Amino acid sequence: MAETEENVNEEQTPEEQTPEEQAPEEAPEAVEEEAPAAEAEEAPAPEPEAAPEPEAAADEPEEQLSPKARRQRARSTHTGDAKPQRSIEERAAERAEARRVKAKHRTAYRARLRERRSAAPAAAPIEPEPKAGGRAKVRLGVVVSDKADKTITVRVDMARQHRRYGKIVRTSSTLHAHDEANDAHIGDTVRVVESRPLSRTKRWRLVEVLERAR
């Protein structure tokens, strides 16, 4: 019986064998397959070649930076040691000292300016230019009020032809004139001339009374 079982086992094909029986034979192949993978992992990967840096164009203009940007760049590239931390009192003392130095320079600068101004020759006064035209306006009118002291109200009548329709258009305006002697009265025909401002509303002066009121 023992011989018969051995013959049966020998005649079994690899497909009929159990997985436990096939495992010992396949183990060496699995080890051989894993070995190249481990070697591939251990082998250092080739470093990629660095791309050649483009050469800076010689004719390219330098970047124009603002003063603030230049200060920021200088601070970012600073490699020195940081200043030691200071207390509030120390920083206040430094600010006070900086203000004192600036005030001293400012005082000296203002003193130099005063010296220059005193040494410079005085500028010649500018003479006013003669007024163009040189003639004061003159108006004829009728006094309509003399209640104010040294002031008369004069009505000036005007008659003009309309520039489109040709019709005569009559208008009137009132002005205040200075009458130093209170010579003119209501109804008088007077001549007034333009003058400098004598009050808030007076810009005219009485020249003569042409006709008295009846």
Task: Report what the structure shows.
By secondary structure, this protein is of the alpha+beta class. The protein has a domain at 138-211: OB fold (Dihydrolipoamide Acetyltransferase, E2P), CATH 2.40.50. Helix content is 36%, strand content 21%. The chain has four helices and five strands. The protein has helices spanning 2-11, 19-42, 67-76, 88-119; strands spanning 138-145, 151-161, 168-178, 189-194, 202-211. A five-stranded mixed barrel has the order 1-2-3-5-4. Strand 4 and strand 5 form a beta hairpin. The longest helix is centred in the middle third of the chain and has 32 residues, at 88-119. 5% of the residues are buried.
CATH class of the domain at 138-211: Mainly Beta
Reading side by side through the largest sheet, how are the strands ordered? 1-2-3-5-4
Low-confidence stretches: 26-33
Biggest sheet features: 5 strands, mixed, barrel
Describe the protein's topology:
Blueprint: H1 2-11, H2 19-42, H3 67-76, H4 88-119, E1 138-145, E2 151-161, E3 168-178, E4 189-194, E5 202-211
Parallel strand pairs: 3-5
Antiparallel strand pairs: 1-2, 1-4, 2-3, 4-5
Would you kindly provide a brief summary of this structure?
This protein is α+β, with helices and mostly antiparallel strands and 214 residues long. Helices cover 36% and strands 21% of the residues.
Task: Quickly list its features.
5 strands, OB fold (Dihydrolipoamide Acetyltransferase, E2P), 214 residues, 5-stranded mixed β-barrel, 4 helices, alpha+beta
